[in-house]
Every structure is written in structure tokens, then in C-alpha cells.
Amino acid sequence: MAIIEVTGVRKAYGRRPAVDGVSFAVEEGEIFGILGPNGAGKTTTVECIEGLRVPDAGVIRVAGHDPVADHDEVTRILGAQLQESELQPKLTVREALALYAAFYPNPADWRPLAERLGLGEKLNTRFAKLSGGQKQRLFIALALIGNPRVVVLDELTTGLDPRARRDTWALIEDVRRSGVTVLLVTHFMEEAQRLCDRVAVIDKGRIAALDTPSGLIRRAAGSTVISFTPSAPLDDIALTELPQAAAVEEKHGRVTIHGTDETVNAVITLLARHHITAHQLRVSEATLDDAFLDLTEASA
Ligand SMILES: Nc1ncnc2c1ncn2[C@@H]1O[C@H](COP(=O)(O)OP(=O)(O)OP(=O)(O)O)[C@@H](O)[C@H]1O
Description:
transport; P-loop_NTPase; Multidrug ABC transporter ATP-binding protein; Alpha-Beta Plaits; elongated; ABC_transporter_ATP-binding; 2 domains; binds adenosine-5'-triphosphate
């Protein structure tokens, strides 16, 4: 069952459209990613879902409710991560948790929540003295304190070191295991690939693609990347006609081909036929990074 339904949403600032006819549905229990370059319209889209912005056109439903007309109801269903600037630097972790718990009719018990998020030792620490990772964990705690069915996390791991980012990923998986649906806005392909069940790629206010991370990789770039330095120029060899070669690129004497396993064999056979050796031959799986660039370039 879809817990969030977004249908034909448009939102312009002045005459410039930021979100230009976006539709998608988030199923209950999934981690749904929104991925896109800077200024693509990701935050505007989630702010419309949160009821913080009013769309110019289109319909949004959160568990059947309109985020603007039924704002109180939606606030109970949907927990949103707070922006850093919204917390007082002198507030302690305990005070922040108790204060935010008081906003909700049926809040979670914040003590076990703080323990679960690794903040048990930090209850008396002021917000300003927390590390970046600890602040992010506090934001997750505050987003969860109202016992929401959906939590919206917008660029949660930006600015975190790799270890803190991985710890945060583990927490997000833990949140989903507890039955909460997660809507995750991110810039990090690795994050989307690792966490998300499905990803909507937004570019210039529109959905460029919506699929599982592996579906996006397959569809966009060709899932196998072959690169090598040929022992002689390839001038006369038509690599682009190889079976399922989605893209062929030559840079500084190194050739990169996106294709499939079948392409790997075909490249080697073709080179052998022309008595060319492939030096430093590398075969790797495409990443969501490749797919993202491909999808967003395609709509450029
Ligand atoms: N309050 C506002 N007033 C005017 N223009 C805005 C406003 N908020 C966003 N925009 C513009 O709308 C477009 C989409 O912005 P939005 O913040 O939704 O993108 P984003 O995908 O979240 O970007 P980023 O990844 O950089 O956070 C951008 O061109 C931005 O400059």
C-alpha cells in the first residue's frame, strides 16, 4: 500500500518552475530515495509532502491525507528531520528530546530512543558541543520522537566522515526494521545504492527515472564497464557496433565501454582479430554514479 502519493505536482518560485509535474508513490515499509543534482527540486518536493510548501498544481496524499488541509494529521504520521539551525546551541540533548516529545500526543519514550541512537552518554551535552555525527543522530531521534509511520530525511549524511556516514546508514536500516517508512533525499550514490529499495532520480524538476538501484544501473549505463589501453590505435575498429555496447569513450589513449558480459567477450575477440592487445584490462560493475550521470546528462 502506498503511504505517500504524489501526482502531477508543480511548484514555481516566481516564474521559474522548481518542480514540474512530479509523480511517484512510496510504499509502506520501504526506503525510497530521491536523488538529483543541486537545484533539481528535491527539497521543494519533500517540503510539499511535509505541508511546508503549497504546490501550484497536483495532488499529494500522506496516508490519504492532504498535507496542507490536514496538516495536524500529517504531522502525526510524518516525522521530518530538522535543519541544524533550528536548534538552540545551548539546549542539551535531554532538553531537546523532552521538548520535542511534548509536541506530540503519543510520543516515543525518548530515553530508550536516545540509547538506541547512541546518545545515552550525551544527554547532558549541549547541542553546540555535539560532533556532526552526534547532531545527525539527534536529528534522527527528533524525527522519530512522535512515533511516525514515515520519516523524511533530507541530506542527512552530508558533512559526515565515512565512519559516521556508515553508522548513520545502519541506524536508518534499523529505523526501517522497526516498521517506519523512510523517504531519503541524498546526493550520495553509494548511500542510495546501499539503502534504498527504489530511487526516483529528479532532474530539472522532473522525474528522469524511477527504479530499484540495480534497475537504474542496468537501464542507464550498461551494467558492465570494460576499460583498457589498446596496444595500437583503434581507428578502423567499430567498437560502437559491438553487441550491447551502450557507450564507448576514448580518453588519453584509454578506452571505456559500458555494456554487458557479452560485450567483454566480443571486445576481446575483436581486438584479437586485429592483433591488438588490451593492456591494463579492467572489467567492473557500473555503479549508481554512472547511472546517475547518464540519466541526468541524458535529460540535459
Ligand atoms: N524559497 C525559494 N525561492 C526561490 N527559489 C527557490 C526557493 N527554494 C528553492 N528555489 C529554487 O528552486 C530550485 C529547486 O530547489 P530545491 O532546493 O528544491 O533543489 P534541491 O534539489 O533540493 O537542491 P540541493 O541539492 O542543492 O539542495 C532551485 O533552482 C532553487 O534555486
